[in-house]
Specification:
Helix content is 50%, strand content 13%. The protein is α/β, with parallel strands linked by helices. Among the domains are: 2-85, Gyrase A, domain 2 (2-Layer Sandwich); 91-107 and 415-537, Isoleucyl-tRNA Synthetase, Domain 1; 163-238, no CATH class. It is globular, with a radius of gyration of 29 Å. The structure holds one RNA strand of 77 nucleotides.
Length: 545
RNA sequence: GUGCCCGUAGCUCAGCUGGAUAGAGCAAUAGCCUUCUAAGCUAUAGGUCGAUGGUUCGAAUCCAUCCGGGCAUACCA
């Protein structure tokens, strides 16, 4: 509809010999200004040295609108062109919603491939609550991309060769040794969580004291990695997240990609040795050059990260998405810089940075820290508030603002909790449909062809239809910006409008079967949109609450 | 110090490709259940959009400076 109006306005501009200019067509906040509004006249006013209202009038006089689509157009305020879309347009859209399998599913990106890499926590321990934000964001974004036509590869990258993993090995070994000798020293920067002891106990159960005084750190590392990964994957499964590919750092050594990249930097004279380490020139874009290979001969995380991104580029995805917390802000810039220096195009890579999360129980807020023993794990959070509330709370705010996660509010099984507002609307509709199915024999024989659209005229009904027809556009916007919280705002308005509709219009009425059927159809359409929306943002559609 | 993010109602936050009277949820106050789920609806109250300048027909939105908070600034990842 927006496009239609835009085209017609452009035609009118041509007729008037006005210059063509980019302008905005948008829904005005106030309904009295119509369904859509264009600001073209104000934008032209300076160039034409004329009063915007007069320009608007000229445009309006030269507009030829199809009355089936636009019932009225007028001028208001400083020179807005306001359009009133005809009710029939929305009613036809209702038929379309009811008739199509997945209204709002776009084919904009049909045939394209996307890779989304997220979570990517190293297997040094279970996911903590703070990880939840990117876990949930990534899940929603991956769904969203699929909904717009992308073939999506979900990927998890982890470092299994670095210092952190050595640290894990040492920590587990120390806990294991302590079982037999309580005085065995624990490494200074070791991981102090209880889960390390659990892993140590498991080793002791299986191998008894055979590994005491063992220098086989590799064994402890592999054992720990496997244990931690099982836990991480179990947590992800609770969200229904399944990664297609787990990509580990080690494979980049095995296939020679890291050596190859090292050579590219050397040949291009972008790296140099100093104090035994290899440094990458950051050519003034960063404060100083960065180490890519330590004096010990071990690469820092940067080099494998760069090699990994180059690998993703070589796999020819049309879109490559990374999700990181803001604490990785600098590293991703370094990595992209390195990839570019090596001669690869990073245009396809989009990085989503989310800000940190603070958790609040009542007035007490607490932060995540792996160093402390007292960690709030993602599993704990899920146990506390449930999977849907977790998913919802993590994505209901824009990723680039700090998130205050109110655990008490999320736990609340009541009207206070914003998740239930949405889900309740859905459950209510299911209730009505059940009622129709069970108690009103007469509706069963109605078919879509029997729907009398003339019976829909009430403002609450029309309001809903207008909202529903906006769904595809909302999907497109949300997908373009990769900001799932926008979709939540929209679904909120849909739910609200439904509740108001419900309150004012009795749906099932034996005296008025045709009207009841019409309203039932509206309910079904709302149900479809809500269900699609919930599926994308990643929460359930409960039939009863 | 430098880079990035944030500062909007008592609290948590939407709104930001400039547009008409700044929105929602929670909290507060007052109403609505013999009728499809009251996890709902209705109404009232609540604001110098951090501050100051600028850009223009028009700024919460763009620019500059300043103030406040977060994150980063490792031969950890």
């Amino acid at each position: 509809m927006k496009e239609y109006i835009r085209l017609e306005i452009l035609k009118a501009l041509k007729k008037l010999d006005y210059p063509e200019k980019e302008f905005i067509i948008d829904e005005p906040k106030d309904k009295k200004f119509g369904d859509l509004s264009a600001n073209i006249a104000m934008l032209l006013s300076k160039e034409l040295k004329n009063n915007p209202r007069e320009i608007a009038k000229n445009i309006l006089d030269n507009l030829e609108m199809d009355s089936h689509k636009i019932s009225k157009a007028d001028i208001a305020g400083p020179g807005f062109l306001n359009f009133f879309v005809s009710d029939n347009y929305f009613k036809n859209e209702l038929l379309y919603i009811l008739g199509s399998e997945d209204y709002g599913k776009l084919n904009t990106n049909y045939g394209k491939t996307a890779n989304i890499e997220w979570v990517s926590a190293n297997p040094t321990g279970p996911l903590h609550a703070g990880h939840g934000r990117q876990v949930c964001l990534g899940k929603a974004i991956a769904n969203l991309l699929e909904w717009t036509g992308y073939k999506v590869t979900r990927e998890y990258y982890y470092n299994d060769a670095g210092n952190q993993m050595n640290n894990l090995a040492k920590s587990i070994r120390a806990r294991y040794e302590q079982i037999f000798n309580p005085d065995f020293p624990f490494p200074q920067d070791g991981y102090v969580g209880e889960y390390i002891k659990e892993i140590a106990n498991k080793i002791a159960d299986e191998f008894k004291d055979k590994l005491v005084n063992s220098s086989d750190l590799e064994f402890f590392k592999n054992f720990g990695e496997k244990e931690n990964f099982n836990k991480i994957i179990k947590t992800l499964e609770k969200f229904g997240i399944v990664h297609d590919i787990f990509y580990n750092e080690t494979s980049l050594y095995k296939n020679g990609n890291i050596d190859e990249l090292k050579n590219i930097f050397k040949e291009k004279n972008l790296s140099y040795e100093n104090e035994g380490a290899v440094w990458l020139k950051m050519s003034g874009k960063f404060e100083k050059d960065k180490v890519i290979v330590k004096a010990t001969g071990e690469p820092t995380y940067r080099l494998p990260d760069m090699a990994y991104h180059i690998d993703k580029i070589k796999r020819k995805f049309d879109l490559i998405i990374d999700i990181f917390g803001s604490d990785h802000f600098d590293t991703y810039k370094e990595v992209l810089f390195g990839v570019q220096s090596a001669g690869f195009d990073t245009d396809k890579i989009k990085v989503i940075i989310h800000q940190m999360v603070t958790f609040k129980k009542g007035n007490e807020s607490f932060k995540m820290s792996k160093r402390s023993d007292n960690v709030y794990y993602l599993d704990d959070l899920i146990d506390d508030v449930g999977i849907d509330a977790t998913q919802f709370f993590f994505i209901m705010r824009s990723a680039n603002t700090h998130l205050d996660f109110d655990v008490e509010l999320a736990k609340e099984q009541s009207d206070k909790n914003p998740v239930y507002y949405l889900q309740y609307a859905y459950a209510r509709i299911c209730g009505i449909l059940r009622n129709a199915e069970e108690n009103f024999e007469s509706f069963k024989k109605f078919k879509l062809e029997d729907l009398n659209l003339d019976l829909i005229k009430d403002e609450y009904e029309m309001n809903l239809l207008k909202l529903l027809s906006r769904f595809p556009e909302e999907i497109e916007d949300t997908a373009k910006t990769l900001e799932p919280h926008r979709l939540i705002s929209y679904l909120n308005i849909v739910a609200e409008s439904f509740h108001i509709f419900y309150h004012n219009n009795r749906v099932l009425d034996l005296e008025n079967p045709s009207l009841s059927f019409a309203r039932l159809c509206i309910c079904k359409a709302v149900q479809k949109i809500l269900n699609s929306g919930f599926t994308i943002i990643g929460i359930k559609s409960p039939e009863r609450m």
